[in-house]
Design brief:
Elements: E1 2-3, E2 13-19, E3 24-27, E4 36-42, E5 48-51, E6 54-57, E7 66-76, E8 79-90, E9 96-97, E10 102-103, E11 114-115, E12 119-123, E13 126-127, E14 138-140, E15 152-154, E16 159-163, H1 172-175, E17 224-233, E18 238-248, E19 278-279, E20 284-289, E21 292-297, E22 300-301, E23 309-313, E24 329-331, E25 337-342, E26 349-361, E27 367-379, E28 386-388, E29 393-398, E30 409-411, E31 418-425, E32 431-433, E33 439-441, E34 455-457, E35 472-474, E36 477-486, E37 492-502, E38 509-514, H2 520-530, E39 557-564, H3 568-574, E40 582-595, E41 602-612, E42 636-638, E43 644-646, H4 651-654, H5 690-697, E44 728-734, H6 739-749, E45 758-760, E46 762-765, E47 775-778
Parallel strand pairs: 1-8, 2-8, 10-18, 11-18, 20-27, 29-37
Antiparallel strand pairs: 3-6, 4-7, 5-6, 7-8, 9-13, 12-16, 14-17, 15-16, 17-18, 19-22, 21-25, 23-26, 24-25, 26-27, 28-30, 31-36, 32-33, 34-35, 36-37, 38-39, 38-46, 40-41, 40-45, 41-44, 42-43, 46-47
Length: about 775
């Protein structure tokens, strides 16, 4: 297509500032309204779109004032014209408290006072529309902004929870009861007694006639108003509000208290010194065997001895279903023990739901109560709970290839989890049986001093051997026994399995990958995204306990799979050309399927980010060397010591010796092939791109294509052909049929991989001659590689 100017404004034109949530109708700066317009890079504010020659829509919430930059392409009669524009969206909102300022109704029946030793669970409510843009509210009490009552804490999500600790007055055993002491050195203040304003005193010597004396005493615990300021932040703005909690001792709300006034407005008729019982026993009582004796204590926390607690069984649950105990069980109304013999049950499982009320009684028939609905599941008498799904013969696995094997058994107990363990025998060296039945790892073909293999030599891996000496073993058939057991321990079964190992290759192959080393801040951002179970549900992840699958947290990018294993020096030599520290760009998030070779059976699905090499376009890349570029101003010379130096302009420096002599800016070594001694001013340059990396690595030795990840060797449904090598970073491996949901979760999570940095300055190779451990192969950094 030809290019032409179809715009009335230059690139960088701003449409100005708009408000979030407002209706937008902006005309594009063009006279060619019949042209077609589309965004080719950047992003319009979310909620806006291009219709004809206008930007219309309603911008979504933004967490802060945000500038959006984007490029729009206008197409008219096969002529195109691009312009960059920007729009600023404003409308950062401040968190607004819904909970009223002042005293909090944290007490029983929403009273504006609370008894000490009471359990508190109160939610402070705040509204902030910016949360729809991904912001998260966090609550806290700043230093110097007051204190909560002792025992209470404010969680980050705005809940005040805990058990209030009482604030005791001076011990009565030390201070006395208000009478005048007879001791020579009195330790009690004579005015300890509380003088009432009703004409009566609490002192031992009353000033009025004895027939008017009324016994009275001061409370043993102190009341206190705790005032504090709660701050809530959405990450950009902070709002504050002052609250208070009035804590009262339970002995303050008694008839013999002569210092409390009903007219204060704080205490109401429904206030009581009794504490509501606090349930300790969880609602789910678990799975229990039928035809067995059972004892379960339904326990409450008794902070203060204020009266007995009586337990009763309700007839109806809060959801209006019948409240009934399992047959054979009885509830002790005093000790709260649930006991009895559950009779024989022919069905596999039964579920019972019942509600128990714990009631505390006071001196004058006052009551305080708490209800809890319990669920109890019973397991019937079954002969066989588990059955094997896996056949005895597990087939053949190729040595040195990643395992996809697993064993499986099914429990007829609903919701049961099956756990697997190796009972006897041994798996091929390199394979491990996980608790969930996955067989992970890869079979080691050749053993080393530290790593066993299916071919093991008694005198070491690299010594001369004769096969008739009885010192060499080659194992290709493995027999082992696995036990499957449900997590309740009610039933277990065993099976002997047979696994054959094939060695399709007579030589070893290595895999070369690259990883980025991000800053702590970006690494934390990535981990937060990957650890979100709402985005990546555990039930959808394929082999979550296998490092080769599951969720990939290291952003590993495959560079070359299945290159013949050589010495580290041979790989380093291949990296002498076309290798340099390089930054890749994150592309689109895509999905692929891995299928069993020759079938349409899907083993797993993979979600990956396509990586883009800035020096390549599609499958087109530069030649391995380029000539005729600008001359390097620093010439290369040879001095009398036969050492190559670049740009040494001060001869006096040559007389200085190590460690004081500064090193040259660019190291040149004798094994380099990208420089010629005869070329004093080199003009040849060597591009660094992924295709040239792979081209240079291919010169090391032979390539085994079957080491390419299975999903790259699988025929995809859309294209009807194999993907082949894909420059990509896997995010997670999914169970078949689950990738679409996870992909949608990622889309709406708001996470953008383009916010990360992917810079590569080394290879990581899984094995070299003489070592089966990962090795770093660092790139050189010279001026002739670009």
């Amino acid at each position: 297509m030809a290019t032409v100017n179809l715009w009335n404004q230059l690139s960088g034109y701003s449409f100005g500032t708009i408000q979030e949530g407002s209706i937008i109708d902006l005309s594009l700066p063009t006279s060619f309204t019949s042209a077609q317009f589309r965004v080719i890079s950047g992003q319009l504010p979310t909620g806006l779109r291009i219709v004809n020659a206008k930007i219309v829509g309603t911008p979504f919430e933004v967490p802060r004032t945000t500038e959006f930059n984007f490029c729009i392409r206008a197409t008219l009669n096969n002529q195109i014209s691009d312009r960059t524009f920007k729009i600023t969206v404003e409308g950062a909102d401040v968190p607004v408290f819904n909970t009223s300022e002042g005293a909090l109704p944290v007490g029983t029946n929403s009273l504006y006072f609370v008894l000490d030793s009471s359990f508190v669970n109160f939610q402070i409510s705040v509204t902030d529309t910016d949360t729809t843009a991904g912001q998260v509210l966090k609550y806290f009490i700043s230093s110097g902004d007051g204190d909560l009552p002792p025992g209470l804490t404010l969680t980050e999500d705005g809940k005040i929870v805990g058990l209030i600790k009482p604030l005791f007055a001076i011990s009565e055993s030390i201070v006395g009861n208000g009478n005048y002491g007879n001791d020579l050195f009195d330790v009690a203040g004579y005015d300890f007694g509380v003088r009432a304003d009703n004409g009566y005193e609490s002192f031992g010597y009353d000033s009025v006639f004895y027939d008017y004396f009324i016994p009275a005493k001061a409370p043993k615990k102190l009341n206190r108003n705790y005032e504090f300021i709660v701050s809530v932040s959405d990450g950009d703005t902070v709002s504050k509000r002052k609250f208070k909690i009035y804590v009262v001792g339970e002995d303050y709300l008694r008839a013999d208290n002569t210092i409390a006034f009903a007219s204060s407005g704080v205490f109401t008729v429904d206030g009581s010194y009794l504490h509501n019982p606090v349930w300790l026993t969880p609602e789910n009582l678990g799975l229990q065997r039928a035809n067995n004796y059972l004892t379960i204590v339904l326990d409450c926390y008794d902070a203060v001895e204020l009266g007995p607690i009586v337990y009763t069984l309700d007839t109806v649950n809060p959801d209006t279903t019948a409240s009934a105990l399992p047959p054979g069980l009885t509830l002790d109304l005093v000790t709260s023990e649930l006991f009895g013999v559950i009779p024989y049950q022919p069905t596999v499982t039964e579920t019972y739901k019942f509600t128990v009320t714990a009631t505390r009684y006071g001196l004058n028939n006052e009551i305080a109560y708490a209800k809890r609905t319990f669920t109890l599941r019973t397991l019937g008498a079954v002969d066989s709970v588990l059955t094997w799904d896996s056949a005895e013969y597990l087939g053949v696995i190729d040595a040195n290839f990643i395992s996809n094997l697993r064993v499986s058994a099914t429990s007829i107990i609903e919701g049961a989890t099956v756990v697997y363990s190796l009972l006897s025998g041994s798996l091929p060296p390199g394979l491990t049986l996980q608790l969930d039945g996955e067989i992970t790892g890869k079979v080691n073909q050749y053993g080393t001093l530290n790593t066993p293999g299916i071919v093991t030599f008694s005198d070491g891996p690299y010594t001369n051997q004769t096969f008739d000496g009885g010192t060499t073993s080659i194992d290709k058939k493995y027999t082992f026994t696995i036990k499957a057991q449900d997590q309740f321990g009610y039933s277990s079964i065993t099976r002997k399995f047979i696994l054959d190992v094939d060695t399709p290759n007579d030589r070893l192959y290595s895999n070369i990958v690259a990883r980025t080393f991000m800053t702590r801040e970006k690494r934390s951002k990535l981990n937060t995204f990957l650890n979100n179970s709402n985005t990546f549900p555990a039930s959808s992840i394929y082999r979550p306990n296998d490092l080769n699958f599951g969720i990939q947290r290291d952003l590993t990018m495959t560079v070359y799979s299945g290159i013949e294993t050589k010495t580290a020096g041979q790989y380093v030599s291949a990296m002498g050309l076309n290798h340099k520290k390089k930054r890749f760009v994150f592309g689109d998030i895509k999905v692929a399927k891995a299928k069993i070779t020759g079938t349409n059976d899907v083993v797993y699905e993979i979600i990956y980010v396509e990586m883009i090499d800035p020096l390549e376009k599609g499958k087109t890349y530069l030649s391995s060397s380029l000539k005729g570029l600008a001359k390097d101003p620093k010439k290369i010379t040879v001095d009398s010591s036969n050492s190559l130096w670049a740009g040494r302009e001060n001869p006096a420096l040559l007389e200085r010796t190590e460690p004081f002599a500064p090193r040259p800016d660019n190291r040149i070594t004798i094994d380099q092939t990208n420089l010629l001694v005869s070329d004093s001013n080199p003009t040849k340059r060597f591009p660094s791109s992924i295709s040239l990396w792979r081209k240079q690595l291919a010169t090391v030795g032979s390539t085994e294509r079957n080491y390419l990840p299975l999903w790259m060797r699988s025929i995809q449904d859309e294209s009807k052909q194999e993907l082949g090598f894909v420059l990509a970073v896997p995010i997670c491996y999914c169970k078949p049929g689950t990738s679409a949901d996870i992909l949608l979760n990622i889309k709406y999570s708001g996470f953008d991989f383009k916010d990360l940095d992917y810079t590569v300055d080394r290879y990581i190779i899984d094995s070299v001659t003489g070592s089966g451990d990962d090795k770093y192969l660092v790139f050189k950094d010279d001026r002739v590689t670009i």
